[in-house]
C-alpha cells in the first residue's frame, strides 16, 4: 500500500526581524574578519574582501527584488523574467561582475544558467578566487510577496594569477570550497555562510543596511522531524528518490512543504531539521555549497544513492553537471536511502 501523500501543507511562516536590542550585534564584515584572523586561508585578504563584496551586492539585490516585485511597469528585460515586472534571474551575477571588475578578487564566475563562464578583461586585476553562483532562484508562483535567493561558492584558482581565469579553474573537487553560503530575499532578507567553522546566520536590517548576526553562535540541526521540503510536483513524478522520500515521511505522519523555489525549501528544511530533496541540481553552483552548509550543521548530503556530494567533482569540460540531492539530519538521510534500496 502506498503512503505517498496526495497533497502538501502550506509552508510555515518564519519571518523574523532583528529586535532593536540586537542592533549592537556583530555585523557580517566584522564576523568574516574575526573568523579569518582565527584561521586565515590566505595572506592577501582577498577572500575577506570577496565575501564583503558578495554581501554588499546582495544588499542591492534585496532592494532591487522588492522594487521590481511591486512595480507594475513592463521592462525591456522581460525575456529574463517569469513575469514582465518581476526580478531578472541574472541580476546578482551582473552586479557582482561589475563590482569584481573593479576590485579584482576573483578571476572567473560560473553561473548556473549561463553556458559560458564570465571572465574579466585582461586589463583588469585578476584575483585568486573562483566564484560559482546561482544568481536568483525565483518563486514563480508568488503573487503577494516574492521569494527568491542567491547561492554562492568560492574556490581558490588553479591557473596563474597573471591571466584571466580558464576552464581548469572550474574543474574543482567540491570539498575544496573555501567558503559557501546563500541569501534568501523575502519579507526578511537572511544570509547564511560558512568558512568550514560552522554555519552562521545574519539578518539584513533595512534601516542600517547591514547584516547582523543572529543568533550569536553557529546554527545546527535541532531534534529531527519527519517533514519534507521539496518541489512537490517533481518529487511525485520521480520514481526513485522523490517517491521514496514522500513515502518515508508520510508513513511517519510527516508533512510535505513546497515554498515555490528551491532555496526557500532548503532554508525551511534547515530550520525544521527535516529532509530536503532537490532534483536536477547544478553540482558546482547549487549542490556543492548547500552540501557544505548541511555538513557544517552536523547533517548529511548525498545524491540519494549513497554518494556523498562533497566527494564529487568536475574533472572534464562538463562544468554544468547535475545531480539529485538528499540532505538533512544524518539519520533521516540514511533512512530514506535504506528505504530506496529496499524498494
UniProtKB/TrEMBL annotation:
Pathway: Carbohydrate biosynthesis. It holds the Pfam family FBPase_C. Residues 281-339 form the Fructose-1-6-bisphosphatase class 1 C-terminal domain. Residues 93-213 form the Fructose-1-6-bisphosphatase class I N-terminal domain. GO terms for biological process: fructose 1,6-bisphosphate metabolic process; fructose 6-phosphate metabolic process; fructose metabolic process; gluconeogenesis; sucrose biosynthetic process. Residues 1-21, 67-89 are annotated as: Disordered. Residues 1-12 have a biased composition (Polar residues). GO terms for molecular function: fructose 1,6-bisphosphate 1-phosphatase activity. Keywords: Carbohydrate metabolism, Hydrolase. GO terms for cellular component: cytosol. InterPro entries: FBPase_C_dom, FBPase_class-1, FBPase_N. Belongs to the FBPase class 1 family. This is Fructose-bisphosphatase. The lineage of its organism: Eukaryota, Rhodophyta, Florideophyceae, Rhodymeniophycidae, Gigartinales.
Amino acid at each position: 500500500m502506498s503512503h505517498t501523500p496526495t497533497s502538501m501543507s502550506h509552508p510555515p511562516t518564519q519571518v523574523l526581524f532583528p529586535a532593536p536590542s540586537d542592533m549592537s550585534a556583530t555585523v557580517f564584515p566584522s564576523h568574516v574578519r574575526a573568523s579569518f584572523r582565527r584561521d586565515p586561508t590566505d595572506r592577501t585578504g582577498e577572500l575577506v574582501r570577496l565575501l564583503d563584496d558578495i554581501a554588499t551586492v546582495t544588499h542591492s539585490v534585496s532592494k532591487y527584488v522588492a522594487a521590481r516585485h511591486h512595480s507594475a511597469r513592463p521592462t525591456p528585460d522581460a525575456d529574463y523574467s517569469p513575469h514582465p515586472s518581476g526580478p531578472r534571474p541574472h541580476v546578482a551575477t551582473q552586479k557582482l561582475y561589475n563590482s569584481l571588475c573593479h576590485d579584482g578578487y576573483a578571476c572567473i564566475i560560473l553561473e548556473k544558467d549561463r553556458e559560458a563562464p564570465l571572465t574579466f578583461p585582461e586589463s583588469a586585476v585578476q584575483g585568486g578566487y573562483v566564484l560559482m553562483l546561482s544568481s536568483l532562484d525565483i518563486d514563480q508562483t508568488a503573487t503577494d510577496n516574492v521569494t527568491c535567493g542567491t547561492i554562492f561558492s568560492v574556490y581558490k584558482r588553479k591557473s596563474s594569477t597573471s591571466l584571466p581565469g580558464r576552464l581548469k579553474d572550474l574543474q574543482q573537487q567540491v570539498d575544496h570550497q573555501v567558503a559557501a553560503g546563500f541569501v534568501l530575499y523575502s519579507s526578511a532578507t537572511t544570509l547564511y555562510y560558512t568558512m568550514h567553522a560552522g554555519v552562521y546566520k545574519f539578518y539584513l536590517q533595512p534601516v542600517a543596511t547591514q547584516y547582523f548576526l543572529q543568533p550569536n553562535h553557529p546554527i545546527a540541526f535541532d531534534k529531527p522531524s519527519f517533514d519534507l521540503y521539496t518541489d512537490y510536483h517533481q518529487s511525485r513524478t520521480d520514481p526513485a528518490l522523490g517517491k521514496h522520500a514522500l513515502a518515508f515521511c508520510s508513513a511517519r505522519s510527516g508533512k510535505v512543504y513546497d515554498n515555490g523555489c528551491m532555496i526557500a525549501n532548503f532554508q525551511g528544511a534547515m530550520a525544521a531539521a527535516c529532509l530536503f530533496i532537490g532534483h536536477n541540481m547544478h553540482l558546482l553552483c547549487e549542490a556543492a555549497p548547500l552540501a557544505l552548509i548541511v555538513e557544517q550543521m552536523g547533517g548529511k548530503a548525498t545524491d540519494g544513492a549513497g554518494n556523498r556530494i562533497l566527494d564529487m567533482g568536475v574533472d572534464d569540460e562538463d562544468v554544468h553537471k547535475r545531480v539529485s540531492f538528499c540532505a538533512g539530519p544524518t539519520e533521516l538521510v540514511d533512512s530514506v536511502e535504506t528505504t530506496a534500496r529496499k524498494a
